[in-house]
Write a structure and sequence with these properties.
This protein is mainly alpha-helical and about 350 residues long. Bound molecules: protoporphyrin IX containing FE (2 copies).
Length: about 350
């Protein structure tokens, strides 16, 4: 019977061999990943119009959404820094340090849900969070609406962006406009996207080796799709719990959303788009070198110690995920009026 096992194994290996020989690296990749589109996706719940996107751009940059009138979305999701803030964890109202690293807003429209723990179902729901969070913008919906209504240009622009609404300046519309703008924050044209679209020479040999390792070792089982991530929730530490220096014990992740024991230390797998320029890494922001993050993933998620050559190739592959950064013009914002609430320290 052992002969049969060997034979069966040999047959399996042969079949596998021919299958992968028939399927080129590029075809394997194209079945798991998709390029970032040039154009924003159409959202059924929030159809994009130029008026809405433009209003959303203004709101994204307007620090008057914050109580201090100093902090905007741009503070922590800087459009000149790949939509992130280069901080271990973000600094918000009154110089308070929040508990988590700011994920990039770039390509975030493709994530299945928002935040590290997925507690917001989409970008519009998400946008209401930071405005009210005490450690971020520390404002109230009422005060934000009062602020926006105090400036005639905003009243007019909300009217044009939400023409069917009787009282268009409201907290919900603010969130919808910001979501519309965020849907345009895309980074197409990465070398990896050119490769997926048929340009064999878009990746270096090392990057191709890294791509193969990324798929063969199972990284792609959690980092797949257009964003190479953002599609599901997994324990950080499937096989081996990372040390407290990387995964602090006081942040149980999705457990706080679902109250389910199996969700302890469960987080959304983040997008790996532009990951080479959005350090530091992980929800804790404790790891600054991409290759270290790759190596930690190997041991924590796969129980596999990548050697330094393997980790270096995967890291080089991840560098091919840096796309064309959108050039966002800073909007000229309407001047405050006598009715505009004053900043609160
Ligand atoms: C998370 C957008 C303001 C820090 C997020 C996410 C988005 C976003 C889309 C989720 C991304 C993802 O899960 O992949 C915005 C918008 C803002 C804003 C539209 C303005 C209304 C801020 C500010 C700060 C900040 C002012 C810093 C003080 C963070 C942090 C997270 C986050 C730390 C992760 C929090 C968690 O997962 O629990 N933001 N953000 N954001 N943002 Fe913002
Ligand atoms: C985070 C790469 C395998 C789930 C990350 C990050 C990188 C990465 C670079 C940090 C991204 C950032 O902070 O912006 C890889 C590589 C893998 C791999 C190269 C293969 C060696 C996996 C697997 C899973 C997974 C198999 C699921 C079982 C996650 C999760 C996070 C993450 C949940 C967020 C952890 C946290 O900060 O709490 N991955 N990954 N990854 N990955 Fe992976």
């Amino acid at each position: 019977s052992s002969g049969l096992v060997v034979l069966t194994l040999a047959a399996a290996v042969l079949a596998g061999g021919t299958a992968s020989a028939q399927k080129s690296l590029q075809e394997q990749a194209a079945s798991l990943f998709k390029p970032i589109p040039e154009e924003p996706p159409q959202m059924e719940s929030n159809p994009l119009t130029p008026e809405k996107v433009e209003l959303g751009r203004m709101l994204y940059f307007d620090p008057r959404l914050s109580a201090s009138q100093l902090i905007s979305c741009q503070t922590c999701h800087n459009v000149g820094l790949a939509g992130a803030d280069l901080q271990e964890t973000s600094i918000g109202h009154g110089w308070q340090r929040g508990p988590r690293n700011a994920p990039t807003t770039y390509n975030s429209v493709f994530n299945v849900a928002q935040f590290w723990d997925g507690r917001a179902k989409d970008l519009a729901e998400q946008a209401k969070g930071p405005v009210q969070a005490a450690v971020e913008m520390n404002n109230t919906p009422e005060r934000v609406v009062e602020t926006l209504k105090s400036m005639p240009e905003y009243v007019e622009r909300f009217g044009r962006a939400f023409p069917d609404q009787e009282d268009p300046v409201n907290f919900e519309s603010m969130a919808m406009a910001i979501e519309a703008f965020e849907a345009t924050l895309l980074t197409p044209g990465a070398p990896f996207d050119e490769y997926l679209q048929g340009d064999e020479s878009a990746l270096t040999e090392t990057q191709k080796e890294g791509l193969q390792l990324f798929m063969d070792n199972g990284c792609a089982s959690c980092h797949y799709g257009v964003n190479l991530g953002g599609m599901g929730y997994y324990p950080f530490g499937v096989v081996e719990a990372p040390g407290e220096d990387v995964r602090p014990a006081d942040d149980p992740g999705r457990f706080e959303v679902t109250n389910t024991a199996s969700d302890k230390y469960v987080f959304k797998s983040p997008t790996l788009r532009n990951v080479a320029i959005t350090q530091p890494f992980f929800h804790s922001g404790k790891v600054w070198k991409l290759q270290d993050a790759v190596q930690i993933m190997g041991s924590s998620q796969l129980g596999y110690e990548l050697d330094s050559t393997e980790a270096a190739s995967i890291t080089e592959f991840l560098e091919s995920l840096t796309g064309n950064q959108p050039e966002i013009v800073h909007p000229v914002l309407p001047p405050s009026t006598e009715e505009t609430p004053r900043p609160i320290a």
